[in-house]
Design brief:
Rossmann fold, 13 strands, 12% strand
Length: 442
């Protein structure tokens, strides 16, 4: 099947289970992937710059709440999974998977330093017979451009000495129906051999693979998935603003529209977009499209609508407090939810941070409650926010707040108690249906 001797040798290792997998980045993407390969019987070596993660893994402990910590303990005790901060060991794995962040700069342009840093860590250790696979969401051309260029500085040639592919992560933290091994894995090689090797590797641990013609097609597929969501979220957010001006409940409208058994797919409005993909990916494609002189008006408009949602929420809160003869300055606001979506602990790019920042700048006193995020982490986007810890959600806390602002609709919050004890509720998630004098929908 493989004309190339290096490819044949690697394919044989993958087939007989002796291939060693290296994973750079042991976060929400890398750690579940490492466990999947280890549970398949392959030897896995994880790499991360955070010593705390390495220590936790070596102790058999889990730092991601939706993962079963027992899986880490079993994998490490079996000897199939280890972790290190020593990137000098990148020559050991036969396959290296890159699972690092791809954020935006303040100018909303791709920040590729983490991918480039990973490539530069690999380059001096790169050897013949290795396959490198990028999982980080990015613009088309990253894998066969930036990544390939850095790796070939080693003197080795892609497609001959080493192999290179892209396979986008599709993690959905907290999803009870789909996990790492059951979500179909899209992949594409810089060349056909690289694609075949990546498919052989993932087929060991993932139930279904979807091989496309190139790394660029695979990169574009991930952007398309998330841009689809971003555009539709922007649509319902804009409808929320329009219907609010008309005194129409957008949640009632969506409930009715959803009864149509064809031609309608429901998306819900909210206080803004969040997570590690949807707020970022549209801007990656828009940035790359400019290189080809192609406008992305639809995508950029959706981005503008979603970016503006926290400001809309703050405006509604300001008006509501004004109706209660209270200024925002000096008012005590209790924010419910810091995570970017319900029932998970992941706060990345959560609109809660922008809302809290806006409240503090307006002079409000802010506390938050989130059963999944006991302490607000330092965020790249909001580095100057003060240290905060989740407060207990008691009747006294609710009664002492001038306003309770629901940002994340966690399932294990007693919303009946919130309604009973709070003076004013700003509901951005459609928790309360119908009319209630305490509730303002935002």
């Amino acid at each position: 099947m493989y004309a190339n001797e290096n490819a044949r040798a690697l394919a044989q290792k993958i087939e007989n289970g002796t291939a060693k997998v290296g994973i750079i980045g042991l976060g929400y993407v890398g750690l579940p992937l490492a466990l999947a390969f280890a549970e398949d019987g392959l030897s896995v070596l994880g790499f991360d710059v955070d010593q705390r993660k390495i220590d936790a893994i070596e102790a058999g402990e889990c730092y991601i709440d939706h993962l079963d910590g027992g899986r880490i303990k079993i994998a490490t005790e079996s000897g199939r999974f280890g972790a290190t901060t020593d990137f000098g060991r990148l020559g050991e794995p036969d396959a290296i998977l890159i699972c690092v962040p791809t954020p935006l700069t303040r100018q909303r342009e791709p920040d590729m330093r983490y991918v480039e840093n990973a490539a530069r860590e690999i380059q001096p250790c790169l050897r013949t017979g290795q396959v490198v696979i990028l999982e980080s969401t990015t613009y088309p051309g990253t894998t066969d451009g930036l990544l390939r260029d850095v790796l070939e500085e080693s003197g080795l040639r892609c497609g001959e000495d080493f192999f290179l592919a892209f396979s986008p992560e599709r993690e959905d933290p907290g999803n009870p129906d789909y996990g790492t091994t059951t979500i179909p894995k899209v992949l594409g090689g810089v060349d056909e051999t690289s694609g075949d090797l990546a498919e052989a590797l993932y087929s060991r641990a993932i139930e279904s693979t979807v091989k496309v013609s190139s790394a660029r097609a695979a990169e574009a597929s991930k952007l398309t998935e998330n841009i689809f969501r971003a555009v539709n979220i922007a649509l319902v957010n804009e409808l929320k603003i329009v219907y609010d001006a008309m005194d129409i409940d957008v949640w009632e409208v969506l409930d009715a529209a959803e009864t149509k058994p064809f031609g309608f797919m429901r998306f819900n409005p909210g206080p803004g977009w969040g997570g590690h993909c949807i707020p970022l990916d549209p801007f990656y494609l828009a940035w790359k499209a400019r290189e080809f002189g192609q406008p992305t008006r639809f995508i950029e408009l959706a981005g503008e609508v979603n970016v503006d949602m926290p400001e809309f929420v703050l405006h509604k809160l300001n008006l509501a407090l004004n109706d209660h003869n209270k200024p925002v300055r000096g008012s005590r606001v209790l924010v419910l939810g810091l995570a970017y979506k319900k029932d998970i602990s992941d706060p990345r790019e959560s609109p809660a941070f922008e809302i809290i920042d806006g409240l503090l700048k307006l002079g409000a006193e802010v506390e938050y409650h989130d059963p999944h995020v006991p302490q607000a982490p330092k965020m790249r986007t909001w580095p100057d926010l003060p240290a905060m810890r989740s407060v207990e959600l008691t009747s006294d806390q609710l009664k002492s707040a001038d306003a309770v602002l629901i940002v994340t609709d966690h399932s294990d919050v007693d919303y009946d108690a919130v309604l009973e004890n709070a003076h004013l509720i700003i509901d951005t998630r459609g928790i309360y249906r119908g009319e209630n004098e305490k509730v303002v929908k935002a």
